[in-house]
Amino acid sequence: MKIHYINILLFALPLNILVRNQRNHRKSILSTTKSELTKTHRTLCECELYAPSKYENDPEMKEVMENFDRQTSERFRKYDERIQDKRKQFKEQCEKDIQKIILKDKIEKQLSQQFSKLQTNIETNDIPTCICEKSVAEKVEKTCLKCGEILGTVVPELGLIGGTVIYASAQSAAVKVGVSKAIELMKDIYFLGQVPFFDLVAKITPSNFNDKMSLIGIVHDASYTVCETTNAQDTLVFCLSKYSIGRRNPSMFLSVTANQAKDAAEAAGEAATGTFSEMTSVGAIFSDALVISAIVVVIIAVIILIIYLILRYRRKKKMKKKLQYIKLLEE
User: Which of 132, 233, 259, 294 is the most exposed, fewest CB within 10 Å of its CB?
Assistant: First the structure.
């Protein structure tokens, strides 16, 4: 038995040594750890060459840092501008939506109030069968349009007629003044107006009152027909003057009377021209009743046209508002 106990103890001792050696081996394998620690952040370098005091003074590093700062600030600035624009757009859109909602609510309230006032018990006999009457503004607009069309065609014709009438009346008055002036001066030629057998007024007409040769011919005709063919040589001053001047110089009487006839023609022409220019001046034209009436008609036409344009503008504005309300209701 002692031998068995000794064998058992001797066997247990190396077994225990073997077990302990295996545990130590496993423990040495499992407990092996890395001596280097894993860093969770990035560092530039830990040596003295790249210390902050070194690379901050480096011009290349400064340039890189400045470029980085500039690009970063530029991106932030663009981002801020874009954000502001979007905020502005969103704000405007929100304001528009709010205004639309307010306007829609207002229109719905007005329509509900108007519909509530309407009677629901409408019969077929109550429905009107006549055509709806137009508003007063539309009637006035159409009336003004018709008046404008009529006056637009009548007023130019009236102005043309008025100008023609003024010109004709001025010309007629100038001719009358010229004829009367010529007769007056011709009567003073050696009392030619007192000759009983010679109708001086009938000889001077509107066509020859300012013609020198015609008036000279009238004087020579009077000297021949009255003084040569009648027995009034001794009683008429015209004939006595002819014979008394003709005794000294036969052609002197004809030259003197011719000069006087020329003066009469020139004076008659000047009188006619002065009268015509006076009647066709601005003051004379605007003092004429026909011209004043034409101006009044033109002013009335312009006023009617202005009223028509105002009413048309108001009607278009109302129609535009109605279309806007209809669009809002449809939305």
Answer: 132
Residue at 78 is within a domain: yes
Pair (219, 293) in one structural domain = yes
Task: Count up the domains in the chain and report the number.
Answer: 2
Q: Is 98 exposed, middle or buried (0-12, 13-18, 19+ CB in 10 A)?
A: exposed
**Is 66 within a domain?**
yes
Closest CA to 151 of 295, 331, 4: 295
Same-domain status, 101 and 166: no
**CA separation for the pair 35, 37 (Å, rounded):** 7
Shared-domain flag, residues 164 and 301: yes
Where in the sequence is the domain holding 229, given as residue range(s)? 141-314
Higher pLDDT, 23 or 89: 89
128 confidence band (pLDDT: 50, 70, 90): very low
Question: What is the percent of the chain with per-residue pLDDT over 90, rounded to a whole number?
Answer: 1
Give the tens place of pLDDT for each residue, 182-214.
888 888 777 777 777 777 777 888 888 878 888
189 within some domain: yes
Lowest mean pLDDT, pick from 156-170, 261-275, 284-298, 307-321: 156-170
Q: Do residues 176 and 170 touch, judged by C-beta distance below 8 A?
A: no
Contact 198, 222 (CB under 8 A): yes
Is the same domain home to 165 and 308? yes
